[in-house]
Amino acid sequence: MSKRSVIVIVIAVLLVQVVISVPSVRSQDAAVWPTDGWTVSTPEAQGMDSLAVANYLLALGEPSLTVDSLMIVRHGQV
Fold first, then answer.
1. Segment 60-74, tens digit of pLDDT
2. Cα–Cα nearest to 44, from 59, 54, 35, 58
Protein backbone atom coordinates (compact mmCIF):
# COMPACT_ATOMS: atom_id res chain seq x y z
CA MET A 1 0.00 0.00 0.00
CA SER A 2 1.45 3.37 -0.98
CA LYS A 3 1.99 6.25 1.43
CA ARG A 4 -0.66 8.27 -0.41
CA SER A 5 -3.23 5.49 0.00
CA VAL A 6 -2.55 5.33 3.74
CA ILE A 7 -2.99 9.11 4.04
CA VAL A 8 -6.27 8.99 2.11
CA ILE A 9 -7.56 6.18 4.34
CA VAL A 10 -6.57 8.04 7.53
CA ILE A 11 -8.30 11.21 6.34
CA ALA A 12 -11.43 9.24 5.40
CA VAL A 13 -11.53 7.57 8.83
CA LEU A 14 -11.13 10.94 10.57
CA LEU A 15 -13.94 12.47 8.50
CA VAL A 16 -16.23 9.56 9.35
CA GLN A 17 -15.44 9.99 13.05
CA VAL A 18 -16.24 13.70 12.86
CA VAL A 19 -19.56 13.06 11.11
CA ILE A 20 -20.50 10.38 13.64
CA SER A 21 -19.58 12.58 16.61
CA VAL A 22 -21.64 15.59 15.44
CA PRO A 23 -25.00 15.52 17.19
CA SER A 24 -27.96 15.21 14.88
CA VAL A 25 -29.99 18.33 14.18
CA ARG A 26 -32.98 18.53 16.46
CA SER A 27 -36.28 19.57 14.92
CA GLN A 28 -36.30 22.80 16.96
CA ASP A 29 -32.86 23.73 15.56
CA ALA A 30 -34.01 23.22 11.98
CA ALA A 31 -36.27 26.29 12.22
CA VAL A 32 -33.24 28.49 12.99
CA TRP A 33 -31.73 28.25 9.51
CA PRO A 34 -32.57 31.25 7.40
CA THR A 35 -35.58 31.57 5.23
CA ASP A 36 -35.92 35.35 4.90
CA GLY A 37 -32.98 36.17 7.20
CA TRP A 38 -30.47 35.00 9.78
CA THR A 39 -31.02 34.94 13.53
CA VAL A 40 -28.24 36.76 15.41
CA SER A 41 -26.73 35.57 18.70
CA THR A 42 -23.70 36.14 20.92
CA PRO A 43 -20.67 33.83 20.83
CA GLU A 44 -21.24 32.77 24.45
CA ALA A 45 -24.87 31.82 23.78
CA GLN A 46 -23.57 29.45 21.09
CA GLY A 47 -20.84 27.92 23.26
CA MET A 48 -18.00 30.01 21.84
CA ASP A 49 -15.41 32.17 23.58
CA SER A 50 -15.80 35.80 22.42
CA LEU A 51 -12.16 36.54 23.28
CA ALA A 52 -11.04 33.73 20.97
CA VAL A 53 -13.30 35.08 18.21
CA ALA A 54 -11.89 38.60 18.73
CA ASN A 55 -8.30 37.28 18.59
CA TYR A 56 -9.11 35.42 15.39
CA LEU A 57 -10.53 38.59 13.83
CA LEU A 58 -7.40 40.51 14.86
CA ALA A 59 -5.23 37.83 13.24
CA LEU A 60 -7.18 38.24 10.00
CA GLY A 61 -6.01 41.85 9.90
CA GLU A 62 -2.41 40.77 9.28
CA PRO A 63 -1.04 42.33 6.08
CA SER A 64 0.03 38.91 4.78
CA LEU A 65 -3.60 37.68 4.73
CA THR A 66 -6.25 38.68 2.25
CA VAL A 67 -9.75 38.17 3.57
CA ASP A 68 -12.66 39.76 1.73
CA SER A 69 -15.42 38.68 4.08
CA LEU A 70 -16.18 36.40 7.00
CA MET A 71 -19.40 35.14 8.52
CA ILE A 72 -19.33 33.02 11.67
CA VAL A 73 -22.35 30.74 11.99
CA ARG A 74 -22.84 28.25 14.81
CA HIS A 75 -26.00 26.26 15.44
CA GLY A 76 -27.67 28.28 12.69
CA GLN A 77 -27.01 31.59 14.44
CA VAL A 78 -24.83 34.43 13.12
1. 888 887 888 888 888
2. 54
